Amino acid sequence: MKEDSLFKEDAVFLLDNRADDTATDILKMIGNKMTELGYAKESFKEALLEREAKYPTGLRIEPYSVAIPHTDPGHIYNPCICVVKLKEGVEFHEMVNTQALVRVNFIFCIALPEGEKQTNVLQHVMGIAGNREMMEALNKAENPEEIYRIVCEC
Amino acid sequence: MASNYRILAVCGAGLATSTHVAKTLQSGLEKKGVSCQIRTCSVAESSGVIFQYKPQVILATVSVNSIEDPHGAKVYSGVPLLTGIGSQKLFDDVVAYLETLED
After folding, report:
1. Residue A118 belongs to a domain with what CATH number?
2. B87-101 helix and B17-31 helix, angle to the nearest 10 degrees
3. Is residue B100 less than 8 Å (CB to CB) from chain A?
4. Structural domain of residue B54, as residue ranges?
């Protein structure tokens, strides 16, 4: 995952968000950014919101819970895993157990166009989310550059 | 446990969470000496696939309620196989369930 890393320096965010922000607020921000940066089509944001509402992606995992929002490949131009670290955790609905809420500190928004190998990407992201050492390093990171460097090390 | 069981993993489609979950389960079961076929599909396709494929076990990365009619298959959450939390228990549960099917 080194040379052809799906992590992009411009798609890493450290959000100085408010404690009362909702998952929708954050997903809108991600949607806008991904379109602005040329990774996703205009339709991406709405698709992301719609999909998260139908099939939530919050995952309760140690040490920090994460969400892995994504859409159908048709809304994507260029492959990218957008990484968002939230200053204040935001509540997402849990995957499968959709009535339950989980406070999420990190978001990995996986944006892949048609034909990209999706399974390995997911495995890679879950490998990071489940890696305590790496997640603690991400939690300490103070700027997007540092976050980018850490995720690329994996 | 010589039987070749059929496992279906269902996701919302797009990210192939089901493929990841299915492969993880398959290798977990193989370590326990249980061989199985795996198949994946989206929620939208699930009714038709369940009808044809007749899985004994369904793993879902979407709400279990969104699978309309499992046709007698036992439905489990695939989340432990994504997060790794509780995955051993899930392997044990699935094996124990499959064992009850043999007569």
Report:
1. 3.40.930.10
2. 70
3. no
4. 5-101
